[in-house]
Amino acid sequence: MKQASIPLLLPLVCALFAGTAHAEKADSAKPMNVESDALRYDDLKQTSVFTGRVVITKGTIVIRGARVDVRQDPEGYQYGVVTAEPGKQAFYRQKREGLDEFIEGEAETIEYDGKADRVKFIKRAELRRYRGATVADEMTGSLITYDNTSDVFTVDGGTASPAPGVPGGRVRAVLSPKPAAAQPGAPAPAVQPPAQLRSTTTIGGEKK
Fold this sequence. Notes:
The chain is mainly β. It has one helix spanning 10-13; strands at 2-4, 32-36, 38-42, 47-58, 61-72, 78-83, 90-95, 101-107, 109-113, 118-131, 134-147, 152-156, 172-175, 202-203, 206-207. It starts with a strand and ends with a strand.
């Protein structure tokens, strides 16, 4: 694998992984590592294309795919597309801010819209939310959209390319309830004092 280390590319590629309201904020300040078999950068068009076993890491973020296309618009917003090898799925994973939770998704194509701060998983899409090492929520469909700013998921079953194992392109989801949190200001449960021995002046009902 060849490692891409051209400084001019990094601002463009960072589009895929900028910190958001619910994503891990520290990721935006972490160094980015990009590995691929080939790289093409167009300074005039402000585009970069990584091809061949692309692996990108930046803080808690991990991206894998066969190809990653990134462009930047005149306003400075960036947009990225991650494409999988034929028959496989591209991969995206990032920690959520302030929580021991990760968002992890796979699809044939993954799109990032920097202006809307939105990630789309397209065709054979899967999305999982981990609490620690445990899968809390899991969903599959033809198109899954994750809005970082509102922390809202939308899932479309589709008709032309239903997800594997989902008849008729219907959505499949497994959603776990959030762990119960202690109510603010709630009184703590009373702690019973240990039993104590007490002296007595009688034995068997008779005075000493």
